[in-house]
Design brief:
The complex is a heterodimer of chains A (141) and B (187). Chain A has helices at residues 2-28, 37-40, 82-112, 126-129; strands at residues 47-57, 60-70, 76-80. Helices cover 47% and strands 19% of the residues of chain A. In chain A, strands 1-2-3 form a three-stranded antiparallel beta sheet. Chain A starts with a helix and ends in a 12-residue tail after the last helix. By secondary structure, chain A is an alpha+beta fold. Helices cover 25% and strands 37% of the residues of chain B. Chain B is built from four helices and nine strands. Chain B has helices at 2-11, 19-28, 35-49, 125-136, and strands at 17-18, 56-62, 65-72, 75-87, 92-101, 142-150, 158-165, 170-176, 181-186. In chain B, strands 5-4-3-2-6-7-8-9 form an eight-stranded antiparallel beta sheet. Classes of the chains: A alpha+beta (141), B alpha+beta (187). The interface between A and B is medium-sized, with 28 and 35 residues. β1 (47-57) of chain A pairs parallel with β1 of chain B, so a sheet runs across the interface.
Chain lengths: 141, 187
């Protein structure tokens, strides 16, 4: 049971952290939407633009950001807001997952290569290090 | 605290542009009329109507969207209008309609006004816009809109009129379906 729960919890935590990091990046730098252009823009409209516009809400005015893809003739397609956010979050999530997986593999490897504990004590134990039955003699001064 | 908020607000604009600046970029590249929207609109309307052969009275093309007047398959003397766009910010995304078009009782029969989209040279639309920009000879000119409809006279079939402006002058360049310039008119 723990074997299933642990990865599920890890993925959920990574997803939550990825969502939070993506939102923070967007607040600080809306131009990050343009990073998703290779995935979301059509081949004939490769140039990304993040357009901001004001909308009226019940609480007043708000600013929206939306990704546009533009072609050589000024032809354009609006991708929107949620798709770039999703792709960004997926990218951040994948990077975090790769990091966590790499750390887990490193931890497993270090455990695997640790020398096993000796049943007779420390390898530096002079009693354990001496041949069986050999008397331990103090070296001559 | 105030400095932090200022940084956040300033940061919130980095990498984005105002809509007016985006419009300037569209005009700088020629105006943004897109032939792909025409063919996509035809496909979407045919799917909506469940027919393979559409009969159209007109296409009106603007940056980001196209308005199509279509003969109603079940009533050959009735027209419906559809709108198909690539942006919610510019006239709506996807297909909207149909909306009935009022017609006068003494209006001419529709059969002489409608045409099949494949007879209108839609595949050459982008080339027509490029040529219109050259033929118009307006420094800094850009295409504002285009219309595809049956020629008012003669038997040359559907024609495409592309309007080019430089904010001081306006020129309409008209093409036949094979992309030949039929007329250049300054307005």
């Amino acid at each position: 049971m723990t074997r299933i729960v642990k990865p599920v919890v890890a993925v959920a935590v990574v997803a939550a952290v990825a969502g939070f990091v993506t939102l923070m990046v967007m607040v600080a730098y809306p131009g990050a939407f343009t990073w998703t252009a290779p995935v979301l823009c059509p081949a004939d409209q490769p140039d990304p633009y993040v357009v901001r516009y004001t909308t009226q809400t019940r609480d007043g005015a708000g600013t929206n950001f939306t990704l546009f893809c533009m072609g050589d003739h000024g032809d354009f397609t609006e991708v929107g807001t949620w798709q770039p956010l999703g792709v960004l979050a997926a990218g951040v999530g994948a990077a975090l997952l790769a990091l966590v997986t790499a750390l887990a593999v490193l931890a497993w490897l270090s455990r695997r290569h640790r020398p096993p504990d000796s049943p007779t004590g420390s390898p530096f134990d002079p009693l354990a290090a001496s041949p069986a039955g050999a008397p331990i003699v103090d070296p001559p001064l | 605290m105030a400095a932090g908020a200022g940084v956040l607000v300033l940061g919130g604009c980095i990498g984005s542009i105002e809509r007016d600046d985006f419009d300037d970029e569209v005009r700088g590249r020629g105006g943004g009329l897109d032939g792909g929207l025409l063919t996509d609109a035809v496909d979407a309307i045919e799917a909506d109507l469940g027919v393979d052969e559409l009969r159209v009275q007109s296409f009106e093309v603007r940056p980001g969207y196209v308005i199509v007047q279509v003969q109603v398959p079940a009533d050959p003397e009735a027209l419906d209008v559809y709108r198909f766009g690539s942006s919610g910010l510019y006239g709506g995304r996807g297909l909207t309609g149909p909306t009935p078009v009022p017609r006068r009782a003494d209006a001419p029969p529709l059969d002489g006004l409608v045409f099949a989209p494949e007879d209108a040279g839609l595949d050459a639309f982008d080339d027509m816009v490029d040529e219109a920009l050259e033929v118009a000879e307006l420094d800094g000119g850009y295409a504002t809109d285009a219309a595809v409809r049956q020629a008012p006279s003669g038997d040359i079939g559907p024609v495409t009129g592309v309007t080019v402006t430089d904010d001081r002058s306006t020129v309409v360049v008209t093409f036949s379906a094979d992309g030949t310039v039929v007329e250049r008119a300054q307005r």
